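Q: I have two molecules that I believe assemble together. Could you output C-alpha cells for the complex as a whole instead of separate predictions?
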Amino acid sequence: MERYDPIKIEEKWQARWESEKPFKATEKSDAPKMFLAEMFPYPSGAGLHVGHVRNFTIVDVLSRFYAQQRLNVMRPFGYDTFGLPAENYAIKTGTSPQSATKVNIDNFRKQAKRLGYAIDWDREINTSDPAYYKWTQWCFLQLFKKGLAYQKESYQWWCPVDQTVLANEQVENGCCWRCGHEVEKKKMKQWFFKITEYADELLDEVDALDWPEKIKTMQKNWIGRSKGSIVNFAVKDTQQEIKVFTTRVDTIFGATFIVLAPEHPMISELVNDNTREKVAEYCKNAIKKSEIERQENKEKTGVFTGAYAINPLTGEEMPIWVADYVLMGYGEGAVMAVPAHDERDFDFAQKFDLKVKKVIEKPENSDDDSACYHGEGVLVNSGQFSGTASEDAREQINAWLGERGIGSPKTTYKMRDWLISRQRYWGCPIPIAYDKDGNPHAIPEDQLPVMIPEVEDYKPDNTGRSALAKCKDWLKVTIDGEEMTRETDTLDGYACSSWYLWRYASPHDDNYAWNPEAIKYWEPVDVYVGADHAVAHLLYVRFWCKFFADQGFLPFREPIKKLIYHGYINAPDGKKMSKSKGNVIDPLDVINDGYGADTLRTYEMFIGPVELDAAWDPRSVGGVYRFLNRCWSLCFADAKKAEPVQTAQARHKTIKKVTEDIYRCNFNTAVAALMEYVNELYKVGVSNDDLVALAKLLKPFAPHLASEMLEKLGADDEWPTWDDKHLVSDTVEIVVQVNGKLRAKLSVPAEDIEDEEKIKSLALENEKVKKFVSGEPKKVIFVKKAKLVNIVA
RNA sequence: GCCCCGGUGGCGGAAUUGGUAUACGCGUUCGACUUAAAAUCGAAUGGAGAAAUCCAUAUGAGUUCAAGUCUCAUCCGGGGCACCA
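A: Yes, here they are, computed for all two components at once.
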C-alpha cells in the first residue's frame, strides 16, 4: 500500500508553485490588501537555522490564512546583506563580500523554497544591490538637506577589533554587539541622524501600537524622557555660569556642591595653579576608563577644582567638583548635588566630607528609611518655600528662577542621536564629498548611486578609515565644476533596513525609492514578525517613517501596524544553539531525514506559545509527523466512513477554534485542535466534508500535504466557515457541584437549559449528589453559561 | 537597587469573561498485527487508596456559592533598565 511520502509530495507542489507563481501580488484587486513581512534575514554562510524557520513560518501561516480568506496578500522577501558579519565572513573565507553575499543569497533562496513559503519571489530585494542602495543614499540626502544628517566631533564608542565606531544601540554592557570585545572611547568627527528631533512623537505614539508591551516598554525606557529644570549657577568671582539639569529643583536649598563630568568643557577654566595638574590627571584617567570599569567600580571618585559656585536660593558657596559618576552625554554634563536626598550625591558627600543639608521632610506614613530620602514630601529649611509640598515647590521655584533669568523648565532624553558612520568597506557609501575647506556637499541625485569600488584588499588597516580611502581615483569627484574628495565612511547597516519595508511595494522602480501609488495601496505593513532589534531597528523605522511623512513622501506616520515578537528556539538541553557547543539543529537535516518541510513547519508552530522561547525536542517532531501521517491516511488510505451529520459538531467546533486561534496567533493550540479533530475522525469515521475542512485548515501549516489532499478531493482552498447551530447538541451536560466540588454530571435535553427550576431539582434528586447533601441546602446556584449547578450544603 | 512578566503531571504545555484543572504532544506501561523488529492501530497514564473517597496549579493567608485565574505577604525563575541627576 502507498504511504505518506512528504518528500515526493513537496517536490511536486514546489515545482508547481515555481512555475505557476500563485503568490504573485498585484494591486488589481477588489479585496482588502494584507501586507505581511518578517524581519529580513542576514544571509549567513550557514544557511537557514531553526529560528529563521519559526520566523518565516509564522509569516507564512498568516499569509496563507489571509489568502485563503481571499484577501489580497503581499508577502515579499529580502536580504540584509551589508555590514560587519558579511564582511568578516568574507575575510574569513578569503572571498570578496560581493561574491560571498551572492553565494549565501542563492543558498538562502533555495532553502526558503524548500520550506514551501508562499513568497512573491518577484519582490525580492537585497540591500547591497546598487539598484537598492542608490535609494538608501537618496534617503540619506533627504535627511542631509533638512539638517537631520549632520557631523559632530565628540567622544564615540570605538571597537578596536572591528575598527569602527558603533551606535549606542550597538554597545551591550560596554562591549561590541558583534565581536563582544570591550569598546573604547575615541574623539572623532562622525555622521549622525538627528533622531532626537522625533523623541516626543516616538514616545507619545508608542502606546497606541498593536505591539507587545515588552517592546513598547523597552522603547519608552530607551527614549527616557524626563521633565525637570535647567538652573544656572554663577561661578564665584567670575562672569561664568554652570548650567545643570535637575528633576528635583524643589531640593535646591539642599544643593551644597556642584559636580561636573570629566569631559565638561569648562573644567580647564575653573582650575587654579594648585589644582590644575591633579584635575587634568583625574579627567584623563576617567575619560580613558572603559564603560565596564566605570560600572564595576561604584565607589565614588572625584577631585575638587578649587572653584566655587553660588547657590542662587541660599547665597551659599558650593564647591565645584569633577567626578565620573556624572555623565557628559546626559542633561548638561553637570549636576547640583543634593546629598540629603540623592543616594549618589550622598555617597560622594560621605567620601569627601561635604555638607549634607536636609530640605525635604518625608511623610509620616512613609516606610522609606534609607539614609537619604528621595521621595516627595514637604520642604523644610527652604526659606520662603518651607512648608510647601515638593510637587508645588518645583513649579514655584521654577517661576522664581525664571523671573530672574537663571532657570527654566526643561525636558531631557536618554536617547542620543544615531551615529551612522562606519569605518568599514562593506556598507552603503555615504553620498557626500568635501571641498577644499572640508565642508560637506551632497552628491547630486543624478550621480547616484555612489558605487562601492571593487578592491583587492578591503580589510581594516588600523588607519581608522575604511578601505575606500585607498581608492585614489574613486575619491575624486567634481561637483558644480569644483574638485572634491569623497567621504570614505559607510552607513550603519540599520540605515539600509530603515526603509526596506517601503521598497517592497515597488521593488524594481527606477524612478522612486518607493512608488507613491504602490505605497498608498500596500503600506503600512499589516503584520511584521521578528525576534530581535527591539529598540534599534524598530525605533529607526519609526523615525524614518515620521521624517518621510513630514517631507510628504509617506501618507502614514507609523510603519508597522501589528508586531509579532517570537521567542527563540533553543537546543534540546535548553541552552542557546551554537556552533561551538555543537548543539545546532539544521532544519534542512530535519527535512532530509524524511520528515519533510510540512512536519518541520507544523512542529515549529506546535512547539509552544509564539512569544516564548522553546527547546527543540526531536521526539515531538516525530509526534507531529505521526499527526500528518494520520491526516494523509484519512484521505488516501481506507478510513472508516461517516455521514457528514455525524461529525458536524466536531467539524464546526474545529473550524471555529482554528480560525480564532490563528487570529490570536495561538498557533500551538490551533495545531492541537487539528490533532484532536483527527483523533475524533479516527474514532467515529470521516466524511468528505471532514476531509475538505481538515485540508483547508491544515494548509497554512502543512501546505504541501493539504494541497495534495485538496487536489484529490477536487476542492478549492477557500477558508471554511462555521455555523453556531452545529456547535450545540441535542443534550447538554450539566455539572453538579456541592460546595464547589464536582459530584455529578447530568445529561439533559438542550431545551431544558432554559428551565432553571427543573435543572436545580434534577441536580438535587441525583443519587450521588444526595450523599453529600443532608437536609435542606442553604443555597442552589445555577450558572447557565457554565452549564453548572452549585449546591451550598 | 528599580520596573515588568512568570511558577500547573515524569517533560513541552492547555484552561479565551472567576465556573468540570491537567486539552494536545512527548515519555512510560499493556494489548493487537508480525517469525521478529520497525511502522501502524487500540487501551491506560497527576498522587495516595482495595474501594468509597481524600489530596494536588511554588508557599501561607484572604475575598467568593465557586479561585490556576482576584487581593495581600513570602520564596523561586526569567526579562528590561541601571551612577540618566
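A: One point stands out. Chain A has 25 helices and 34 strands.
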